[in-house]
């Protein structure tokens, strides 16, 4: 890793109900770059994000170079009642609103919500019911919500899973733009190796422990992927295709 670290993890271990989910994870997340976390199902990727967010107990240490770094989080699945009468605007103003929504939403907050939606090219969704959005639309709205907290670090858990190819490309382009303009540190859990090769500049492969890490050119190779995912987990030909794909 050539650049300064934004987050340093030392010997991070997580146990849930007696099961070791992460074991002695020691790594650094480079500042102002996109880091992809990859690895097989159940390997502990989401758990690692939750430890960084301090949502679960862990042993070892996780330290931030910037002491009061704000963190934005786009979870894998947003838990909410799809039938609830909440619009996108309500969702975006809720975390900042200090009075109940039935008192109305100030013009300033509304304008701010529109501004962040515009940044993710979703201003047309402002008054749409949150529960009626498609997967790709919801991801963009969640990204707008994370960005409006003006974070310096953004964690994304499988942001493009279930999103069609065009939606995936749009989302990744937005991420790239936003991360460059705002000089954000991004950590993205993904199974999409094409996305990793194209957008990430650092990759950490987790399967309980750190299996590999480095530039996608070093980590996303046919041999290393076959080792990480096993012969059945990923076809070697697919791995080779990804490995030869578009890279920074
Ligand atoms: N609260 C919990 N109690 C017990 N086991 C848990 C808990 N949370 C997660 N696990 C287990 O920890 C392991 C890692 O889960 P995690 O969600 O971090 O994996 P992941 O790499 O993100 O997986 P995927 O790629 O399938 O999303 C899994 O075996 C999961 O069942």
UniProtKB/TrEMBL annotation:
SUPFAM superfamilies per record: P-loop containing nucleoside triphosphate hydrolases (SSF52540)
Gene Ontology molecular functions: ATP binding; ATP hydrolysis activity
Stored InterPro entries: AAA+_ATPase, ABC_transporter-like_ATP-bd, ABC_transporter-like_CS, Metal_Ion_Import_ABC, P-loop_NTPase
Record organism: Kolteria novifilia
Record PANTHER family: ATP-BINDING COMPONENT OF ABC TRANSPORTER-RELATED (PTHR42734:SF7), METAL TRANSPORT SYSTEM ATP-BINDING PROTEIN TM_0124-RELATED (PTHR42734)
Highest taxon listed in the record's lineage: Bacteria
Residues in ABC transporter domain copies: 7-233
Enzyme Commission number(s): 3.6.3.-
Gene that encodes the chain: znuC_2
Keywords from the named record: ATP-binding, Hydrolase, Nucleotide-binding, Transport
Protein name, as recorded: Zinc import ATP-binding protein ZnuC
PROSITE patterns (alphabetical): ABC_TRANSPORTER_1, ABC_TRANSPORTER_2
């Amino acid at each position: 890793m050539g650049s300064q670290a934004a987050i340093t993890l030392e010997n991070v271990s997580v146990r849930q109900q007696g099961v070791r989910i992460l074991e002695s994870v020691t790594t650094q997340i480079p500042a102002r770059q996109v880091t992809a976390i990859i690895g097989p199902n159940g390997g502990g990727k989401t758990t690692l994000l939750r430890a960084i967010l301090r949502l679960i107990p862990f042993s070892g240490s996780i330290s931030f170079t910037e002491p009061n770094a704000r963190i934005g989080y786009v979870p894998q699945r947003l838990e909410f009642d799809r039938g609830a009468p909440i619009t996108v605007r309500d969702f975006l103003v809720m975390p900042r609103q200090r009075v109940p929504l039935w008192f109305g939403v100030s013009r300033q907050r509304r304008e701010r919500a529109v501004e962040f939606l515009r940044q993710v090219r979703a201003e047309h969704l402002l008054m749409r019911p949150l529960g009626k959005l498609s997967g790709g639309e919801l991801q963009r709205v969640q990204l707008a919500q994370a960005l409006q907290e003006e974070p310096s670090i953004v964690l994304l858990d499988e942001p493009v899973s279930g999103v069609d190819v065009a939606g995936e490309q749009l989302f990744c382009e937005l991420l790239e733009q936003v991360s460059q303009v705002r000089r954000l540190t991004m950590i993205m859990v993904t199974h999409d190796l094409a996305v990793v090769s194209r957008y990430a500049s650092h990759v950490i492969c987790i399967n309980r422990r750190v299996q590999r890490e480095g530039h996608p050119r070093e980590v996303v190779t046919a041999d290393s992927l076959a080792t990480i995912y096993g012969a059945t987990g990923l076809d070697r030909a697919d791995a080779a295709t990804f490995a030869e794909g578009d890279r920074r």
